[in-house]
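Proteins fold reproducibly. Look at a concrete instance:
___
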Amino acid sequence: MERLEPPDIREFDQRPINADVPIAEDVALRRAEAFDPGEELSAEPAPGRQAGRIARSTAFFSIATASSRVAGLGREVVAAGYYGISGPMSAFTIAFAVPNLIRALFADAALQPAFVPIFTELLGKKQYKEAFRLASTLLLLITMVLGAITAFFVIFAPIVMPIFVPGFGPELTDLTVTLSQVLFPILILLGVSGVVVGVLNSYDRFGAFAISPLFWNLSIIVVLVVLEPRFHGQNKIYAYAIGILIGTAVQLAIPAWDLRHTPYRFSFSFDWRHPGVRRVLLLMLPVTISLGLINFNQLINSTFGSLVSDQAPAAIEKAFRIYQLPQGIFSVAVATVLFPTLARFANAGEIDNLRATMANGMRLILFVLVPAAAAILVLSDPIIRLIYQRGEFDAAQTSIVSTALFWFAFSLPTNGLYLLQTRTFFSLQRPWQATSLAAIDLVVSILAAFLLYKPFGVAGIVAGTGIGTSTAVVSQAFVLGREFGGLEFGRLFSTTVRVTIASAALAGISWIVWHSLEAALGTGLAGQIISLGVGLAAGGITYLAIAKLLRIPELEQMTRLLRRGR
């Protein structure tokens, strides 16, 4: 394919991004005409390499996400050492959960799934000017709307926030209010990020998006270390809130810089009557409700937790961070990388390819997350003790957090499936179906938590969330299976049975090796690292060996795709 590169492109790139907007738009359009989504600016297209490119993208995204999760774990370790699961930490947990819920409703989490299918559709039709005008209009519109929402919540936080902490005393309630006022401005940054990342993903550029959370976590750690000693008493928790704000700004800056490697250039275009804007907003409405309902589960956990004890909200959050590690390493990577592909198949009406892609993603997620859940079930206590138990975090707190992690493990595979199935509904631009199913998840979770929190405490709250997610996954699978004429349920069942057998062996070997080594080496730091690390490694080797013996196709498929993608 011939490349159209005007001689002045390189010179233009050295100028301010908003200089000579008409020239910028012309250069951007020429660049867009020169290549298709999925290609590098300077690379020749590679027909027939779709599977290899997806494998490379998935592998890179998984590695980058794993690095981010590890850094996030480091952030949680540092924070746990400073604050434990004290009352102020629980106040911070809920103060952060409320803006995070609003983010899901109006910012990146809702905007990106609504924006990507429409932007990708315009690119596929070679309507680059319309696509770029749509992106620029949304950037301005989102900034204005989220700025107004942020101002509203900052002003009315003293009225809104006490609703979510019914079990807190006056001092912790006031702390929750002021912390939320510090954190609410992240909405504006995340809203802009939703459009920016949507543009990048539409061009199959996942690198900056994948690594930006790593620097988000690293920035927070640096701010914590620098600022925490400068505060006193309960006010020390403000260092964490300030770190979140600074880290979010860094997280936006990285993908924004990567926009230079796409044809898109921002222009001050506020064409709010653009038909694409209306389509995005209409699509956002059910997406907003759906993702808002999903994220509301976390706030439900914290709210019910405040009725159990001052420590419960923070304990659930600490366990959730460990739970997210295997979730983010693979299932989020698969769903994110496959989403543009699913959207293209949906736009082209290629239902067979869409069904096969989603069904294959489901099996891959189960292949990774079922053994991860098995390992957590038998080793939740030593995992929490090794990661968190130091500084302000003592053995009693380890017991509470490990209980929450144990019950989170049951929903690990189903939550991965839920994420991929929801993205499939979005790619079809029929998110109202996902919305109604998300409502089922929310209602079941609330009812289960309400019934279980008094007799079982933290365990009952977390179990309620798992019950709701499992119900939604079964409902989604039924609807999609009817829509697509099946989801290869026979292969899914076969993979699940064999993966479960291999995972049971992993759990048994991991526990035996860990228990034996801990008895011999003790519970010092070195002993914990060796016993837990060797136990997990032995379990992992056992799992892979039995997976090969049982001829689980996903093991061979992953190996083949990764080799092809090199």
